[in-house]
Inverse folding.
């Protein structure tokens, strides 16, 4: 029913997760596993390309918040790229947009890190 | 010679077939499964001694007489009895087989009687040593070795030796084949049963745990229901209705009312996620918001206090949990509505005068995301006929079978269409429209709504 896919890649040594589909209560767990996998490997910066994410529930936003907080504790960051209108609404409605670094696309997110 | 070998083997395999059918029947019986599961009673053991004893007798009866000796599957019953049920059943059935074989006479009578007794005993000793049925491969190998042992004993004890040697030459292949095959099938059945019982036990335990969890959830759901206002307070000049429908037993949505003099304060909130984690977070948030927003005076900057408490006390930084919330206070005298919106779906205000809808937009960040956030307070004046619909995202994010959202536009239309009804009528009508839209698609998120209509 609810489907989400994650493609992992590594650009300039920064993990980039290209997520597509719906991030709801069910798929949020898979996203959490994917994110904590990178965070547990002591990565400081993660980029999530959300160009193909059509839906983000509060469960999904919770997972992103939790990962963001863990990364910030080690002076890292969770960079979000290419938010679609619906997903953008969720961030702006809840105010979560204030805490995330949001970029128009993946390239700009990576370049912003100047590594 | 070759021909008789084949025909002898076939006769024995036929006997084995009969034994296997009997084995299938007995293996499903209570005495057998009880013993397999380590609950041997004297009665069950006696019954099985009798059964395997009879199998042994049948193995003798069906045997082929070669020069006064009998090629047979006599050892099979006691072997199985010993390996699967222990030394007592093994030895008992072996003795029955032995008594019968001895009564038949012949020059190998002593050797054969002794051996069938040993079959049960040895099988039982293996069981004792392993503490359980030793498995398919072991049992089959054991049966084959035991038949070789059988032949050696026959040669050692039975006289004249030449005759014994001749009988062994004739018997060794069919007997190893038949007893080995019989044991293989028997062992396979037993191993299957053991596995089946294990699976059943695991399933039972799992179901039991599930029942306990289910019962706990029912209690949790009752507790959570008790958090919701039992009765909606009445305020002169206003008609109020509210509902909360969790998607599962417990949920993360809540609403609350507090009435003091001319002021009715209410809150509608939605915790991220659903189920038990959301319910726990909801219980905590509800109390914090209640404590921080009493008494019903002053500004809603006080949401800052609630936010800080949630961030400090809930571990929301680690879990990422947050709660979106709309807090408002209605004044009965001047029909003013002051509110603050912490990241919550903007409530819709239907204006009867202009037949239009205003949104009560967000004035601050969802609670629990970050400490020290500011919450702005706004105020609107309500007029007779106006309807305020506060809701949670379970309504606008409800999906139909084409995976389309109900969305805010449909909700607006539903509100406008029903605005002339009573508060309860509007609520029912909106939920009815929602039901028509989702049509049988299972509710996936908690649904909560409060309708306040100005009547005066």
């Amino acid at each position: 029913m609810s489907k989400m896919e994650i493609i992992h890649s590594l650009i300039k040594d920064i993990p980039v997760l290209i997520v597509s589909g719906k991030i709801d209560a069910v798929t949020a767990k898979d996203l959490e596993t994917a994110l904590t996998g990178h965070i547990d490997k002591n990565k400081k910066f993660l980029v999530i390309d959300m160009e193909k994410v059509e839906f983000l529930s509060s469960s999904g936003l919770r997972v992103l918040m939790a990962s963001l907080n863990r990364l910030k504790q080690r002076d890292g960051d969770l960079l979000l790229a290419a938010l679609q209108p619906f997903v953008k609404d969720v961030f702006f409605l809840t105010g979560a947009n204030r805490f995330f670094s949001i970029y128009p696309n993946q390239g700009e997110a990576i370049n912003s890190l100047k590594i | 010679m070759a021909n008789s070998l084949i025909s002898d083997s076939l006769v024995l395999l036929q006997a084995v077939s009969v034994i296997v059918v009997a084995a299938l029947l007995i293996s499903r019986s209570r005495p057998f499964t009880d013993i397999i599961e380590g609950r041997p009673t004297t009665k069950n053991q006696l019954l099985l001694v009798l059964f395997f004893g009879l199998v042994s007798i049948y193995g003798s009866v069906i045997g082929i007489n070669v020069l006064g000796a009998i090629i047979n599957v006599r050892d099979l019953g006691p072997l199985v009895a010993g390996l699967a049920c222990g030394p007592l059943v093994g030895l008992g059935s072996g003795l029955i087989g032995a008594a019968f074989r001895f009564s038949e006479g012949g020059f190998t009578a002593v050797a054969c009687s002794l051996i069938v007794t040993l079959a049960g005993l040895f099988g039982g000793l293996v069981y004792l040593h392993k503490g359980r049925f030793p498995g398919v491969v072991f049992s089959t190998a054991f049966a084959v070795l035991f038949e070789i042992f059988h032949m050696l004993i026959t040669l050692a004890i039975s006289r004249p030796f030449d005759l014994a040697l001749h009988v062994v030459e004739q018997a060794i292949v069919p007997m190893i084949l038949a007893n080995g095959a019989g044991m293989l099938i028997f062992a396979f059945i037993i191993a299957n049963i053991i596995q089946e019982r294990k699976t059943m036990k695991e399933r039972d335990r799992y179901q039991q745990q599930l029942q306990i969890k289910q019962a706990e959830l029912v209690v949790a759901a009752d507790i959570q229901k008790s958090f919701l206002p039992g009765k909606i307070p009445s305020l002169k000049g206003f008609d109020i209705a509210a509902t909360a429908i969790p998607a599962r037993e417990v949920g993360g949505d809540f609403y609350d009312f507090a009435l003091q003099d001319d002021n009715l304060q209410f809150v509608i909130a939605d915790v991220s996620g659903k189920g038990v984690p959301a319910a726990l977070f909801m219980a905590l948030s509800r109390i914090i918001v209640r404590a921080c927003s009493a008494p019903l005076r002053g500004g809603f900057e006080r949401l800052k206090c609630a936010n800080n408490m949630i961030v400090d006390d809930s571990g929301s930084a680690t879990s990422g949990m947050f709660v979106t919330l709309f807090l408002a206070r209605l004044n009965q005298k001047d029909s003013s509505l002051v509110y603050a919106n912490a990241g919550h779906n903007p409530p819709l205000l239907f204006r009867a005068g202009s037949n239009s809808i205003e949104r009560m937009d967000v004035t601050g960040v969802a609670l629990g995301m970050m400490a020290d956030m500011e919450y702005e307070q706004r105020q609107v004046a309500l007029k007779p006929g106006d309807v305020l619909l506060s809701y949670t995202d379970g309504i606008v994010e409800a999906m139909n079978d084409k995976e389309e959202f109900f969305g805010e536009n449909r909700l607006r239309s539903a509100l406008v269409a029903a605005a002339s009804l009573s508060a309860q009528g509007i609520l029912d009508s909106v939920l009815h429209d929602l039901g028509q839209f989702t049509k049988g698609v299972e509710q996936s998120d908690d649904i909560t709504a409060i309708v306040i209509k100005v009547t005066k």
User: Anything to note?
Assistant: Residues 161-227 of chain B form the longest helix (67 residues).
